[in-house]
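Lab notebook, bench 4. Still working through the backlog of constructs that have no structural model yet. Next entry is a single chain of 317 residues. Request: give me the structure tokens for it.
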Amino acid sequence: MKIANFSILLLAFFIFPITFAQLRVGFYDNSCPNAETIVQNLVSDEFESDPTITAALLRMHFHDCFVGGCDGSILLNSTDSERFVGPNLSVRGFELIDEIKAELEAQCPSNVSCADIMALATRDSVALAGGPSYNIPTGRRDGLRTNANGVFNLIGPTASVAAFLSFFGDKDMNTLDAVALLGAHTVGVGSCDLFQDRLVNFNGTGLPDPSMDSDLVANLTTICEASENPSTGLDRSTPLTFDNAFFGQIRVRRGVLQLDQRLATDEATSSVVAQYAADNDLFKRQFAIAMVKMGAVDVFTGEDGEIRTNCWAFNNN
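Model written out:
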């Protein structure tokens, strides 16, 4: 797939006002003019002590938006919430969101939603890691329900490329968007249980996955044997920097997760991977476009939903 009309897409993105539903850039300019600055400052403080917060917030934001929409439901702290099931058990960064919310409540009570805080914090953490800085529409409201069962429908690390593209396509995101968003793995981390079978017994063969570089197999095997709960960066060269190195690596059989590796060889995505690998600026621009689109998935606006006082509980609790 060629990106023939990418310049036209970018031109449209920057010339026309960014509005999705009732979201708009600068939503809090009058009601809480320091909102985005407060978010940025607290994210910067966290990033200084823990640069892995970028990966944590990206994962949190993705998992929120793809389960019932970008409504802050992943933040809810109850036994039946999305937060405590399946792949969300390893999501982190909640304390930072709560810290930001407390500061915003002190300055602008009941004004800035938790869903917007998550979107803004993710954007700011990406920029701090060297990724794109982009305007993001705000005005989301927090949802009034949680969907724990929906967490199990999230795309997994062994999914086929067809399933991966369908998953994003169901939310009106195209191949360019989907591949760019998976490029967030440039700062991602994977636990060994997600790829252990690729190292020792791929598809029951008793051998490593032949699509994985043999040196990477040896390196990951050492890592996975080193501790009780081992994990590793999905970008093997610049794991804390938001860049296109991930795409170059999967093109030379150095993808840690099976889905990542498949992107480089499947005819539906391989040409997009090649173009992102060759052009860091192209990848970052498309990632920003895709993040804005993702951040508008099934949002609550206007009078729908609520503005939570605490991100971890509905207001009536």
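Notes after review: Residues 35-49 form the longest helix (15 residues). Confidence is low (pLDDT under 50) at residues 1-19. Flag for follow-up if needed.
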